[in-house]
Amino acid sequence: MTFVTAEPYIGHLGLDGVGDTKGLLESEMRQHHIKWLTSSRVKKVEAGRMTVEQVGDDGAAKGETELPFGFSMMLPAFRGIAPLRGIEGLSNPRGFTLVDKYQRNPKYTNIFAVGVCVAIPPTGPTPVPCGVPKTGFMIESMVTATAGNIGLLLRGEEPRHQASWNAVCLADFGDSGVAFVAQPQIPPRNVNWSSSGKWVHGAKIAFEKYFLHKMRRGTSETFYEKLTLDVLGINKLKEIVTDSP
Ligand SMILES: Cc1cc2nc3c(=O)[nH]c(=O)nc-3n(C[C@H](O)[C@H](O)[C@H](O)COP(=O)(O)OP(=O)(O)OC[C@H]3O[C@@H](n4cnc5c(N)ncnc54)[C@H](O)[C@@H]3O)c2cc1C
User: Which CATH number fits domain 84-239+241-245: 2.40.50.140, 3.30.360.10, 3.50.50.100, 3.90.76.10?
Assistant: First the structure.
């Protein structure tokens, strides 16, 4: 199996790494006999064969590699949906929605954006462009801030809630995995923690069951979830803002 990525190194994750993700993810891939090609872009795909171009640190093409395959999976670079593309002040050239620190578009102030559609600049230049990932907990923090800010506007006040954009991730490798916490997701960070082991695989299964159970009950955050995250210091909002100034 070969993992082909735009990242300049394994474990970059579009975040310039989190803690030891470079070493941890390389090690996990070696353990699972997965080879990798970094700073790479796909040139063409033919029946049973993919042609990949590797790019040097100077941005110049270094050469092509042909990868024969029986099964392949590709995640193309994300872009915004067509209705949002090409609107000056609303979206960036790739169609992602521009927001201020309150999740609100600076030009069209009645538009808020949350999730994958939000424009986030890359953490830094890389030979092949690498987008910043938008992860579940980070998006929940955007939604929490947005809901609070729309509530404030409806009460005639100004938005004050800022999402923490913290990232809590469990990357499952089938029998083990790598976990990381990045607070905030974009450096410089206050928390930059990563770890690996069989427990990550178990935790991912447990989380899936817990998450689906609470969604079926229509609960976005249980008391114990909030308590645990509070104890760990992982918050959805940057600061606790009360409704009365
Ligand atoms: C392979 C993969 C693995 C991931 N693993 C993790 C993980 O382990 N942990 C983690 O935290 N995050 C993970 N993520 C990221 C996380 O899943 C996403 O960030 C999250 O689902 C995004 O939520 P969203 O609501 O912004 O967008 P989406 O979940 O993509 O929802 C967008 C919705 O809009 C709909 N839509 C599209 N166009 C239109 C249109 N024109 N009109 C109306 N509706 C439209 C789509 O059908 C879709 O339902 C992963 C993502 C991928 C792709």
Answer: 3.50.50.100
